[in-house]
Amino acid sequence: MRSKILSGTFISFEGPDGAGKTSALRAITTTLQPLLGDRLTVTREPGGNAISESIRSIILDRANTAMDYRTEALLYAAARRQHLAETILPALEAGQLVLCDRYVDSSVAYQGAGRQIGEAAVAKMNTFATDGLLPELTVYFDVPAEVGLKRIQAHRDPRKVDRLDVEKTAFHDRVRAAYLRLQAAEPNRIKLIDATQPPAQVVASALTLIKQTARAYFTPGA
Q1: Considering its fold, how many domains does the chain have in total?
Q2: Which is nearest to 142 in space by CA: 113, 185, 177?
Q3: What is the DSSP-derived secondary structure letter of residue 163?
Q4: Residues annotated within a binding site for ATP
Q5: What is the pLDDT of residues 151-165, one digit of tens each?
Q6: Which domain of life is it from (predicted)?
Q7: What integer pLDDT is reported at residue 219 of this predicted model?
Q8: Mean pLDDT of 55-73
Q9: Is the dihedral of CA 129, 133, 139, 142 positive or negative?
Q10: Is residue 2 part of a domain?
Q11: What is the domain range of residue 18?
Q12: Which CATH number fits the domain that encloses residue 163?
């Protein structure tokens, strides 16, 4: 799906827990917002609008330990569909640059591989949910599972630790391995950044990729 009416540019941010992608996106937003103004939309998954945020609260609630893995995957897909219909597509139709914290690749990695319900099955489910729309660029922040988990333990507010954060290392190893398979299969879309580097260097690398992909939004030297 890539209609002529979608004149904007869609970029997603992906990575294992503790990779620092959300912090990087926050820094990038601070840099780009003054340059782009209302031509920039920054959003997240699951979430991005009232309905999707409500689904997010159910998915990530640590009290929902009885949630079936396929239920979890279906809820992510449902939240994604609403997010796409209500937030992402209107922004792209308006010609905006859309930066999204997580998208389809997260479901393939976390539910398909991490939960071991099948990467192909989860990808197919999300193809239906998104009508096949993928980002023009996916910035993948790569970090070994043990490094990411140590970062979470050291820095994250305990009140913000969710159901996925408390999974065992083997789960997060499977997630990272799936991300690396996705990147190897789609190197033109998914660009890897070594997220063990200093944060400023990670942010600079991500900004370079964004500007290369979304050249029309930036004047020379911006």
Answers
A1: 1
A2: 177
A3: T
A4: 15-22
A5: 888 876 666 656 565
A6: Bacteria
A7: 72
A8: 94
A9: positive
A10: no
A11: 9-217
A12: 3.40.50.300
How sure is the predictor about 2, in pLDDT bands with cuts at 50, 70 and 90? very low
SS (H, E, C) the chain: CCCCCCCCEEEEEECCCCCCHHHHHHHHHHHHHHHHHHHEEEEECCCCCHHHHHHHHHHHCCCCCCCCHHHHHHHHHHHHHHHHHHHHHHHHHCCCEEEEECCHHHHHHHHHHHCCCCHHHHHHHHHHHHCCCCCCEEEEEECCHHHHHHHHHHHCCHHHCCCCCCCCHHHHHHHHHHHHHHHHHCCCCEEEEECCCCHHHHHHHHHHHHHHHCHHHCCCCC
- Give me the helix-helix angle, 145-155 and 169-185, nearest 10°: 120
By CB atoms closer than 10 A (0-12, 13-18, 19+), residue 89 is buried
pLDDT of res. 1: 47
> In whole angstroms, how large is the CA radius of gyration of the chain?
17
Strand order in the sheet with 137-142: 40-44, 97-101, 9-14, 137-142, 190-194
Say if 17 falls within a structural domain: yes
> Which pair of tokens denotes residue 107?
């479901």
Binding residues: 15-22
Q: Which pLDDT value is given to residue 86? A: 98
The string of pLDDT tens digits covering residues 99-140 is 999 999 999 999 999 999 999 999 999 999 999 999 999 999
Q: Tell me if 84 is assigned to some domain.
A: yes
Contacts of 161 (CB under 8 A, 6+ apart): 62, 152
pLDDT tens per residue across span 8-24: 999 999 999 999 999 99
